[in-house]
UniProtKB/TrEMBL annotation:
Keywords: Isomerase, Metal-binding, Ribonucleoprotein, Ribosomal protein, Zinc. This is 4-deoxy-L-threo-5-hexosulose-uronate ketol-isomerase. Signal peptide: none annotated. Zn(2+) binds at H197, H199, E204, H246. The keyword DNA-binding does not apply.
Length: 279
């Protein structure tokens, strides 16, 4: 079964008028995973779809949704998935891929039958997905942690020592517009994405996980002169419009998956701000 929600794009002037409830309604995805379901949020930011696939007691099929008006989900789209759970088997038009914890897959446009299943019912797979429109079909490819383009950033002095693993980026796999990766905060570090940045050419979604149950991440958004925050719990996502900076601080260390779509595939295309310049 597939459930989905649609988020229309919000202008920055409208954003400034929103209260906590309004901000959470438009930018926070509170439910990413539902057992035995595909749970999606179709955003109108680059038409990026953010979602979760959690096959627990049975295989789960990727079905088209009415918003796409296409016979199959991937007729005009590409999809990236990252496994945050136990071992997964993904069958793409008859070809089988197995994904361990923290491994990723890129699935190219034009594939018709995509099925996700868990290999261990006691430790089910959990696949966080991002999907964006695709102009052509690139080959489906599994990407393991060892294949990632790795970037070590930050320091313990500034509480932001972290490892960025770029898994689905153009140095690793061919994609049309999708980029995805995983950033892990080292023990004791809590700040991600410092210096914070904007990339007006791409939207982004952040999905936070491994946030201890009694802790949270405070995610910051908006222009650097007009920030707001969202308190995010474990396994929730934030949609970041192209005009919005994005960074966060946890009350404990955590991991997050970032995914982008838009004008370019240049990860380093960012306008950065010093922390002391943010209002
Ligand atoms: O901690 C970081 O820094 C990040 O992970 C930054 C994201 O990768 C990002 O925002 C890319 O545009
Ligand atoms: Zn970014």
């Amino acid at each position: 079964m597939t459930t989905y929600d649609v988020r229309y794009a919000i202008h920055e002037d409208h954003y400034k008028t929103l209260d906590t409830e309004g901000l959470r309604k438009h930018f926070l995805v509170e439910t990413v995973f539902v057992k035995d379901e595909v749970c999606l949020t179709y955003t109108h930011y680059e038409r990026m779809i953010v979602g979760g696939i959690w096959p627990v007691s049975k295989p789960v099929r990727l079905e088209t949704i009415d918003s796409l008006k296409s016979a199959h989900f991937l007729d005009r789209r590409e999809l990236g998935a990252m496994n945050i759970g136990g071992p997964a088997r993904i069958t793409v038009d008859g070809e089988i891929f197995e994904l361990a914890h923290k491994e990723a897959i890129y699935i190219g446009a034009g594939n018709k039958e995509v099925v996700f299943e868990s290999l261990d019912a006691a430790n089910p797979a959990k696949l966080y997905v991002n999907s964006a429109p695709a102009h052509t079909s690139y080959p489906t490819k599994k990407v393991g942690q060892e294949d990632a383009d790795v970037l070590a950033l930050g320091s313990t002095e500034t509480s932001n020592k972290r490892v960025i693993r770029k898994l689905l980026v153009n140095s690793v796999v061919q994609t049309c517009q999708l980029q995805m990766g995983m950033t892990e905060l080292l023990d004791g570090s809590v700040w991600n994405t410092m210096p914070a940045h904007i990339h007006d050419r791409r939207m982004e979604a952040y999905f936070y996980f491994k946030v201890p149950e009694d802790q949270a991440v405070c995610h910051f958004m908006g222009s650097e002169k007009e920030t707001r925050h969202l308190w995010v719990k474990n396994e929730q996502a934030v949609v970041s419009p192209p005009w919005s900076m994005h960074c966060g601080a946890g009350t404990a260390s955590y991991i997050f998956i970032w995914g982008m779509a838009g004008e370019n595939l240049d990860y380093d295309d960012m306008d950065k701000f010093n922390a002391s310049d943010i209002l």
